[in-house]
Specification:
By secondary structure, the protein is of the alpha+beta class. It has one domain: START domain (Alpha-D-Glucose-1,6-Bisphosphate, Chain A, domain 4, 2-Layer Sandwich), CATH 3.30.530. The protein is built from 5 helices and 8 strands; from the N terminus they run ββαααββββββαα. Strands 1-2-8-7-6-5-4-3 form an 8-stranded antiparallel beta sheet. Strand 5 (73-81) and strand 6 (85-90) form a beta hairpin. Helix 4 packs across helix 5 (157-168). This is SRPBCC family protein. InterPro entries: ASHA1/2-like_C, START-like_dom_sf.
């Protein structure tokens, strides 16, 4: 759906050797329509790689899980500013910062995924690319269903991973 090379990877300024993968997607909807897709478990279940056990609309602990066969990860909502920003943690090593900015035709959704291991960046970018495509379809009213695990291979994850590996270095 979009350019698979639209991502950046930069060192995090926390001096802990972490990296920030940044990806953006323009959506043809106002921030208020997109916001619930970031915080409501029923909406997240339609596109997100991990589903929380509660709405992510308030600070505090949350558990997340990709599928019922996967381990439950401890998470935490660190900051919420509807409909502009959500920051939450998945497991011990990954922090996600979602920003929504109004545009002339809707909004720009930007993900900043902070990770400990730079080696995961291209795989994460390929996965997020598929998830953001799936989110775009869902918000547009043409959902295709959540794509996780081995299903991502049928949605061109390997070539996205390879393309992002070349782009991100």
């Amino acid at each position: 759906m979009t350019n698979p090379l639209a991502a950046t990877l930069t060192p995090c300024d926390d001096h802990e050797g972490r990296w920030v993968l940044t990806m953006s997607r323009d959506l043809n909807h106002p921030p208020e329509k997109v916001w619930p897709w970031l915080v409501d478990p029923d909406k997240l279940r339609q596109w997100s790689p991990a589903i929380p056990d509660r709405p992510l609309d308030s600070m505090g602990a949350a558990h997340v899980q990709e599928t019922s066969a996967d381990p439950i990860l401890d998470g935490e909502v660190l900051a919420v500013d509807p409909p502009r920003e959500l920051i939450h943690r998945w497991g011990p090593d990954d922090t996600l910062r979602w920003r929504i900015e109004p545009t002339e035709n809707g909004c720009r959704l930007t993900l900043e995924h902070s990770m400990a291991d730079r080696g995961n960046a291209s795989g994460n970018a390929g996965g997020w690319h598929i998830c953001l495509d799936t989110l775009t379809l869902a918000v547009d009213g043409t959902p295709r269903g959540r794509v996780v695990g081995v299903d991502a291979m049928r949605h061109d994850w390997q070539s996205l991973n390879d393309g992002y590996a070349a782009t991100l270095g």
